[in-house]
Amino acid sequence: MASSSAPVDKKMQEQEYETTEYNYKRYNVCGMRFETTMQYAVRKAVGQGAYGLVCSGRNVESNKTVAIKKIPKAFEDTIDCKRLVREIKILRHFRHDNVLGLVDILPPHGDMKDWKDVYIVSELMDTDLHYIIHSKQPLTDEHFKYFLYQILRGVHAIHQAHVLHRDLKPGNLLVNKNCDLKICDFGLARAIDPTEDKKDLGLTEYVVTRWYRA
């Protein structure tokens, strides 16, 4: 077991890993196998759910912090796979302060037919607005104004690119310690042709965020 290079700050200590036969780093995070290229070092798990596992990490070449999301068995469900491809295609074209940036997609290793898990690297944020709303963190009018300004700015940029997010909610609004906000999770988003009639857009009736129906 080889130890990854770790910063002096113990709170940000990077986890130990073993090197695979394909020169990948293999970690054990929350009992789950987590693999990255040699370019990234994993620090700790920051989120886990039905979508998979998200870890904070570091690009060892640029020394920038990142979030690395593992989506296990990404190709087993056709609908989930389509949402993943759609999200990646959309995020590749966004470079905006209030939209979560896609940094990298880790290439598969070994035989392509054995490729099951997808790893997406993005900007690292501290928490989401849902957590802040339900926490004891006091919020002032200035907080509300700044958050709302950033949400509207991000939505405007998304709509200018002829994309509908369709799942805008506090859990999909990431925030850092400076109160900077970024919109994430474009799995249900749709790119639209502004020249087409709205009735012919081919959008599904299903929308997760119920307030969209109001």
From TrEMBL:
Required co-factors: Mg(2+)
First-level EC class: transferase
Residues reported in the UniProt entry to bind ATP: K70
Classification via InterPro entries: Kinase-like_dom_sf (IPR011009), MAP_kinase_CS (IPR003527), MAPK (IPR050117), Prot_kinase_dom (IPR000719), Protein_kinase_ATP_BS (IPR017441), Ser/Thr_kinase_AS (IPR008271)
Single GO MF annotation: MAP kinase activity
Residue intervals of the Protein kinase domain: 40-214
Catalyses which reaction(s): L-threonyl-[protein] + ATP = O-phospho-L-threonyl-[protein] + ADP + H(+)
EC assignment: 2.7.11.24
Activity regulation, per record: Activated by threonine and tyrosine phosphorylation.
DNA-binding is among the record's keywords: no
Keywords: ATP-binding, Kinase, Magnesium, Nucleotide-binding, Serine/threonine-protein kinase, Transferase
Family statement: Belongs to the protein kinase superfamily. Ser/Thr protein kinase family. MAP kinase subfamily.
Name of the protein in question: Mitogen-activated protein kinase
Organism: Prymnesium polylepis
